[in-house]
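Let us practice reading a record.
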Amino acid sequence: MPRFAANLSMMFTEVPFLDRFEAAAQAGFTAVEFLFPYDHAAEEVGKRLQANGLAQALFNLPPGNWDAGEKGFAALPERFADLEQSLRTALPYAQATGVKRLHLMAGIASRADRLAVEAFYKSVTWAAEFFAPHGLDVVIEPINPRNVPGYFLNDFGFARDLIHELKIPNLKLQFDIYHCQIIHGDVTMRLREMMPIIGHVQIASIPSRNEPDGEELNYPFLFAELDRLGYTGFVGCEYNPRGKTTDGLGWFQPYAGAKP
């Protein structure tokens, strides 16, 4: 049975961020993820997790100026110092939450730019080696160009080849089924091919990015496929509820309370 993690940046937004931990636990989730925790003290985030018996599945490394449109800087040669600082910023949050994987965002750049490609390889290697002594995986996620135009990492094949080439044990693929369907389609076959390098999975309906209970994909089949493939990691619910979060959790009821 998949272990679902509520994405607190998108779900339970009816209440303030720090109150969403309790809301998720009350709804039957045993794990959470979110985009960024950095507006709150690491110790406070850790306390909310512990108080509600929740596991932290994932969060992102600092992305730069998110409000100004920055989406990370791993592929930006001139921002390597910012990349280094982002790792140091995230580490106390990883330690306070007990998370085991962090998402490194690539940024807005062209894969046709040799310097951007070189910068991404350097940043990915640096981040993975920085976090390895702390028992942390680094995951990279292809993101579709409809949601984030110009995002450097927008191809699952490129991500797969990079991971295979670098052969860094704690470097994994973040397989967002929503992004994969929009970029490539053929989700099931890609899951089967890439399962050995997958460190995290995320879900949403396609094309609306709502609850995974309809539209293009048969999610009950995909959840069963994850079990068939032996996936034991978390499945992050990175979707926008159509209305009140709890009103849209009918799809989740068969899985509520799964051990973290």
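A brief commentary: The beta strands are 3-7, 31-33, 55-60, 101-103, 137-140, 171-176, 198-203, 234-237.
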